[in-house]
Amino acid sequence: MATSSVEQRLKALEDEVAALKQKVNGGKDDRPWWQQIWGAFHGDPAFLEAMKLGREYRESLRPKSKPKRKRKHADPR
After folding, report:
1. 41: which residues sit within 8 A by CB, 6+ positions away?
2. End-to-end CA gap in the chain
3. For residue 35, what pLDDT is reported?
4. Beta-carbon neighbour count of residue 41 at 10 Å?
5. Burial 6-20 (b: 16+ CB within 10 A, else e)
6. Calpha distance 9→64 (Å, rounded)
């Protein structure tokens, strides 16, 4: 194989990888991932339902409080 064709193929591969990286990253965004997706589900009925069901489940795991008993007061006589 000629050196020039290997170099040409390598250059083509490097260009392709650079293009794919650009496509995946969608440009440079230095914000953390959670800031990039913040608000993505705002007002989504399915998300709101999932949050409601999750809250109900977590509340079902909490121990139930016992009803408070009335204390009998000693006769002050």
Report:
1. 47
2. 113
3. 92
4. 13
5. eeeeeeeeeeeeeee
6. 69
Rounded-to-integer distance, Cα 8 and Cα 18, Å? 15
Structure tokens at 48: 């709101």
Q: What is the pLDDT of residue 5?
A: 93
Per-residue confidence (pLDDT) for residue 27, from 0 to 100: 64
- pTM score: 0.43
Cβ proximity of 47 and 41 under 8 Å: yes
Output the six-digit token pair for 45: 């009925």
H-only helix segments in 1-77: 3-25, 33-36, 45-61
Residue found under tokens 């990888």: 17
Tens digit of each residue's pLDDT (9 = 90 or more) over 4-59 = 899 999 999 999 998 888 888 776 778 899 998 999 999 999 999 999 999 999 99
